[in-house]
Amino acid sequence: MAKPNLLILCTDQQRWDALGCANPLVKTPRLDALASEGAMLSHAFCNAPVCMPSRHSMLSGRYPSALGSVCNGIPFPQGTPAIWNILKPAGYFSANIGKLHFTNHANRDHTARHPDYGLDQLLLSDEPGCYDDAYIAWVKSKAPSEVESCRCAHPPAYSGPGPRLTTPPRETTEPYDFQGPEHLTHSAFVAEEAIRCIEQHRARPFFIIAGFYAPHPPLNPPRRFVDWYDPESLPLPHRQKDDNPYGLSDAEWRRVKAYYYALVSHMDDQCGRILDALDTLGLGDNTLVLFTSDHGEHLGDHGQIQKGEPGWDSCIRVPLLVRWPARIP
């Protein structure tokens, strides 16, 4: 048979239960369809519930401890084989579109050259709007007047060149509507450029990662997806009655959850664009599609937000869907 194409749809900070096929409160029709056409692995866990160690481990097949990658800020070891290095001798084209997070992004100049780690194409954007990277360049090429509406604040650890951006907010507890047009989100950028890459390199087997930043905060989905959710219908986080260090009211916690789910729904919509492109190009049957995330999000459970110690499913358990027609039931 022909060598299968490999497509990884990788999100950031997505809980295992932030999919409709795992939780009926979440609206993800495109990924639910993907699950129905393949396999949904219900108990998948990352090797470290922090971005860089998890991604290093997942894409190299080695434990974070073996790589010396035990926290954010430690670069992926140069010379360590990743999946694409192993596939290259078999004739595969390799690309990463969007987030990769193999090096620290908070202390470098994003206009400078980044190591390609042996990838044939690296269109890198590790954050959704605070750096002058591939995403902002894409926005400038499509709608220069909308660049500022697509910005967000720098991460707390930022020490790179230029002034620190402090608005719009980026904490899980500070949701807001995306300020630019829906077609200019970071997720839309990843989808459009992943489709372009597939179209350009479909003549040979490919390994492509579509690196979505969502639903990692800032929780800023387009308004259309916010309107899909009624916060009052959503349950409160799993926590003790007085375990509320962020001081949010019940209504505020429900609003946080609604915006998080809305950002997942927007990402789902953009994944659907990529899956449609595979079918349009006649590549769906011979492409192994894997959907997953680097780690979860506490979302108020146990009185916590974002990620951290690997003690709870909310941050170490991840979604995992695999579709390969005729090979995976």
What is the number of helices? 9
Q: Which stretches are poorly predicted, pLDDT < 50 over at least 5 residues?
A: none
Structural class: alpha/beta
Mean pLDDT, rounded to whole units?
96
Main sheet overview:
7 strands, mixed
Radius of gyration: 19 Å
Give the strand line-up of the largest sheet. 2-9-7-1-6-4-5
Sheet-strand content, in percent, reads 5-15%
Number of strands: 9
Helix content estimate: 25-40%
Distance between the termini: 18 Å
Characterize the overall form.
globular
**Secondary-structure element order, as H and E?**
EHEEHHHEEHHEHHEHEE
Summarize the structure.
This protein is of the alpha/beta class and 329 residues long. Helix content is 28%, strand content 14%.
Can you walk me through this structure?
- With 329 residues, the protein is α/β, with parallel strands linked by helices.
- 28% of the residues lie in helices and 14% in strands.
- It contains 9 helices and 9 strands.
- The strands form 2 sheets. A 7-stranded mixed beta sheet has the order 2-9-7-1-6-4-5. It has a two-stranded antiparallel ribbon with strand order 3-8.
- The chain is globular and about 55 Å long.
Key descriptive features of the protein:
globular; 9 helices; two-stranded antiparallel sheet; alpha/beta; seven-stranded mixed sheet; 9 strands; 329 residues
Outline the fold blueprint:
Elements: E1 5-12, H1 29-36, E2 39-40, E3 44-45, H2 51-60, H3 64-67, H4 83-87, E4 93-98, E5 121-124, H5 134-142, H6 186-201, E6 206-215, H7 223-226, H8 250-280, E7 287-293, H9 313-316, E8 317-318, E9 320-323
Helix pairs in contact: 6-8
